[in-house]
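ugh ok fine here u go
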Amino acid sequence: MAARRMFAKAVVGSGRFLRLPVKSRLLYYDLGMDADDDGAVDVLSVLRKTGATERELEPLIAEEFVTVLLHEPPVIYITDWKRNNLIRKDRYTEGLYRELVERAIGHPEDNQRLTNGQPMVNQWLTQTRTGQDRQGQDRVGQDRQGHGGPGGLVPSLSEVVDYFREQGVKSDLAERFHRVNEERLWKINGEPVKNWKKLARSWIENERKGRKSHGDGGEPVDGSGPASRWGNLPGIKRL
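structure:
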């Protein structure tokens, strides 16, 4: 197995990543360092070594920085593994969960490169891809600035979920609120949303009254928080 792990600036330097809770960001690095050459990692092993909890893992799943491959025992895949790491074929070791990775994202050897043994080849390829990805992130960032509230930034899904929890509302309404407003580019009648929390409170009030929220059908709010069991974590799709 390769002895080094890399993290693309286009991923860990993006606004979407930096808006995650600090502990979730630290957990992402630990997961990346512990992953096998296919990008899969035994979650419980990392949680026990670092003292992290499923609570820190939830935002990574919700924001799709990791993908759940297996529920028992819990195994995840680093979604941007190919962007982060280019592994030389002569250093690649097939991982225990290779078959699960293939079923989820295709052949993991796509991130391997034939080399003549000179690390500079991998460094050049990584820098080239990182530069291209960063340009794409910058363009997205320019389109998203100026909406959502103070600071000119739209809220991340984890921020929305946390706020809805504070209001005693379950996370599925928070996820729907975030999805719908993402699709609308955080605009109402063509004007940028100036205070997303105020808009969220309106959704919550309408939901509690049993009405539709801004044209998007709602479900009754029972005040329960999000389930912490693996099968019900946000973003989990069974393979």
